[in-house]
Specification:
By secondary structure, this protein is mostly helical. The longest helix has 25 residues. Helix 3 runs antiparallel to helix 5.
Length: about 120
């Protein structure tokens, strides 16, 4: 039984050694030389104005989370759509339920004003 896990343990050990080696190599080969220009926050070539820790509206985060949710929906829908005819009615009804739950969530967010950028 333990012989079956030996390649997995070797891969894990090699990954850990590789990660540590890369971190050590980056510190040895590229020493830090701070300058005022390097320490300044990057603002697309413009001089930064004000504090960099600006509060964002909750609506910004709602739209961002919605974007992620609907990207994940696409990740599930595309492979299912490719094999839809071969899979049959069970997975079709499961996907209808999945899309319906997401549609109800989108409707709720729309009614609560989460998509408005006032």
């Amino acid at each position: 039984m333990s012989g079956a896990y030996a390649p997995l343990l070797m891969l894990f050990g090699l990954s850990v050694v590789n990660a540590i080696g890369m971190m050590v190599a980056s510190h040895v080969l590229n020493p830090r030389r701070p300058t005022p220009e390097k320490e300044m926050p990057y603002e697309s070539g413009m001089t930064p104005i004000g504090d960099t820790r600006v509060r964002f509206s909750v609506k910004f985060y709602m739209v961002a989370i919605s974007f992620i949710v609907f990207d994940l929906e696409t990740i599930y829908l595309v492979p299912w759509a490719v094999e839809m005819r071969r899979l049959g009615w069970g997975p079709f009804l499961a996907m209808v339920l999945f899309v319906a739950v997401l549609a109800v969530g989108l409707w709720y967010e729309w009614k609560k004003g989460g998509l408005e950028w006032d």
